Amino acid sequence: MPLIKRINTNNLIAFWLLGLCNNFAYVIMLSAAKDILEKESKNGSSIYNETCPGNEKDIKYSTISTGSVLLADILPTLFIKLLGPFFLMHMAYDVRHIFVVVCQMLSYIIVSISTTIEIGLLGVIFASLGSGLGEITYLSLASHFSNDVISAYSSGTGGAGIIGALVYAIMTDPYVLNISPNKTLLFMTIVPLIFLFCYSKILKCPESVKQVGLFNNVDNYVYESIQNEIDEEIDNENTIAINETSDNIVSPLSYEEKKSIIISMLYYMLPLVIVYYAEYFINQGLLELISFTCKKGFNLTLSAQYRWYQVLYQVGVFVSRSSNNICTIESKFLPLLAIIQVVNLIIFYYDAKNHFISHIIIVMALVLFEGTIGGKAYVSTFSQIHKNTSMEKREFSLTFVAISDSIGIVLAGFSAIPVHNYICSLK
């Protein structure tokens, strides 16, 4: 039994780290969005908003929306997620993991050495490819484990947000470490190495996980671990689902079965699409237009204000994604989260146009709340799917629904650019 408990703990830690490392590059690229768009052609340094504005007339806005970075950071992800459920599920998990690690390593290196916006965006694209492949890989991998790994993975993705945004803000803030964005990004190359170690040395996979043997991480005790854990649960449906894993075989789904699953998953997908559309419209389309003077903005530079908005958003995401075992949202309440996030969008849009909010602390509180709603929608959606879907349908369901957030983010990116231009034309 101690061995089984140790394997359980190792796998929870592994999935937390997988979530952390997989989302880290994505978060860093969004936190660095302003810096990427402000590259000088000669040395790639940031030249924008490094002083605190004394009055509102000193506040200058970028001519290019950070929505362009968002699109570079999400379109490849959406492409991968659309292909994944139909063409990538037969690829071995360890091979997929290697691709994810390589893409993330390239992303940090390319952006750190780039001297133009175009090269910087190329690095963002590599981060997006790695993140997209990683998400569908690790969510579908979770179908071979107990439901707790969903919470661990979701918490890890939230941890990526808060740790990534906070580390980037602290390292680049002129009042703290004052390290250049380029050197900061080069420092981040340690993350893919941790990523590689996590999958190969910490994670213990059951034999049902398809691999080619790149890593010696298969352990038969995983099945016994899952079974003993589920025996203590009173949820009969979960017990039956796990018992089905004892055969180690899940029959391939037919086209009609996949079509039926897709239709049934729309109930989970639509609220998640709306939540992510609203929050990324806010984060990458409106927050860059909500700036404050020294007196009303804690003496933060305009770039620093944007970075700390990102930190607070990620704090909210992390807290809510890590609290699934404490506060569970049932399926019937998922649409309510979408409605709340749309209300947040309306408030931020009105303030971006009219600047009716008097101090940055109010905006920071709203950003924190917005992140909390987004994180709760994410973890609740996948947790409910894992709980309510039979074993033979679970892997495909989790993989397919993973495109929901990307669809919402892509729509937000395309919306953010014209709205940015419209609001700037009013100022």
Automatic annotation (TrEMBL):
<feature type="transmembrane region" description="Helical">
    <location>
        <begin position="74"/>
        <end position="93"/>
    </location>
</feature>
<keyword id="KW-0813">Transport</keyword>
<protein>
    <recommendedName>
        <fullName>Battenin</fullName>
    </recommendedName>
</protein>
<feature type="transmembrane region" description="Helical">
    <location>
        <begin position="184"/>
        <end position="202"/>
    </location>
</feature>
<feature type="transmembrane region" description="Helical">
    <location>
        <begin position="261"/>
        <end position="282"/>
    </location>
</feature>
<keyword id="KW-0812">Transmembrane</keyword>
<dbReference type="GO" id="GO:0007040">
    <property type="term" value="P:lysosome organization"/>
</dbReference>
<dbReference type="InterPro" id="IPR003492">
    <property type="entry name" value="Battenin_disease_Cln3"/>
</dbReference>
<feature type="transmembrane region" description="Helical">
    <location>
        <begin position="396"/>
        <end position="417"/>
    </location>
</feature>
<dbReference type="InterPro" id="IPR036259">
    <property type="entry name" value="MFS_trans_sf"/>
</dbReference>
<feature type="transmembrane region" description="Helical">
    <location>
        <begin position="356"/>
        <end position="375"/>
    </location>
</feature>
<keyword id="KW-0472">Membrane</keyword>
<dbReference type="Pfam" id="PF02487">
    <property type="entry name" value="CLN3"/>
</dbReference>
<dbReference type="InterPro" id="IPR018460">
    <property type="entry name" value="Battenin_disease_Cln3_subgr"/>
</dbReference>
<feature type="transmembrane region" description="Helical">
    <location>
        <begin position="150"/>
        <end position="172"/>
    </location>
</feature>
<feature type="transmembrane region" description="Helical">
    <location>
        <begin position="12"/>
        <end position="33"/>
    </location>
</feature>
<dbReference type="GO" id="GO:0005765">
    <property type="term" value="C:lysosomal membrane"/>
</dbReference>
<comment type="similarity">
    <text>Belongs to the battenin family.</text>
</comment>
<keyword id="KW-1133">Transmembrane helix</keyword>
<dbReference type="GO" id="GO:0051453">
    <property type="term" value="P:regulation of intracellular pH"/>
</dbReference>
<keyword id="KW-0458">Lysosome</keyword>
<dbReference type="GO" id="GO:0012505">
    <property type="term" value="C:endomembrane system"/>
</dbReference>
<feature type="transmembrane region" description="Helical">
    <location>
        <begin position="105"/>
        <end position="130"/>
    </location>
</feature>
<feature type="transmembrane region" description="Helical">
    <location>
        <begin position="333"/>
        <end position="350"/>
    </location>
</feature>
